[in-house]
Amino acid sequence: MFSMAIVRTPAKSLVDGITTAGLGKPDYDLALEQHRDYIRTLEACDLSVIILDADERYPDAQFVEDAALLLPRGAIFTRPGAESRRGEVAAVRSVLDDFYDQIDTVKAPGSADAGDIMVVGDHCYIGLSERTNHEGASQIISALESHGYTGSTLSISEALHLKSSVSYLENNRLVVSGELCDAVEFSGFDQIRLDQSERYAANCVWINDRVLVARGYPKSIEKIGATGLEIIELDVSEFCKLDGGLSCLSLRF
Length: 253
Ligand code: CIR
Known about the structure:
By secondary structure, the chain is an alpha/beta fold. The chain has helices at 28-44, 89-96, 134-146, 218-225, 237-240, and strands spanning 4-8, 48-52, 68-70, 74-77, 102-105, 117-120, 123-128, 150-155, 166-168, 173-176, 190-193, 205-207, 210-214, 230-234, 251-252.
């Protein structure tokens, strides 16, 4: 169960965030409104939300999930794969230092975005992507082992991050899309397979037996809803334009 979350207010510079989506530039005011809705939803899921200030130097800083992996007793801070995002970690770290005794940090030449890390019980699946390299993953696995966790890697090529295509909904339930439908690593899960046309919805977020799902993906809502979990739909169209999804917008702990 989670009781807290960290988010970061988008800066006006978000319109210059990194993207491959080809959906045009996000509308700042609408992004801000969607971000406020997101915060209200986290609060409705009984989380206390820490809101970090916007920083115009970092157009992608609202995607706080990439800066850290938070485990019950320790935090692992990443070294984001995109150079323009490396400076984002400091602000996230400054609020988390007080919560954790054990802190590890990914160091050069390692790189990792925590959007590439999916926690399933005491195991972490780490996507090797354009952002997360072998060295970064192996530093994370060593840190995980010192926290009593294990880690394993799998290569991804279709989407930006591992969790762009897969989400764990607890109790062995996994939402999967695209290339990950055939991944042997995930064959033992109860899979909820999404249509290719709705693959963006695979980035959903389990919070205390509710699931946040992106608005606009009706077939996925029906499939995920069949689990019996309460679904909360949220419009994140402006973040989708920056290759970001629901999970990227917060760190839950
Ligand atoms: C980036 O390319 O880094 C951002 N525009 C999007 C990051 C999304 N984060 C995530 O999927 N965990």
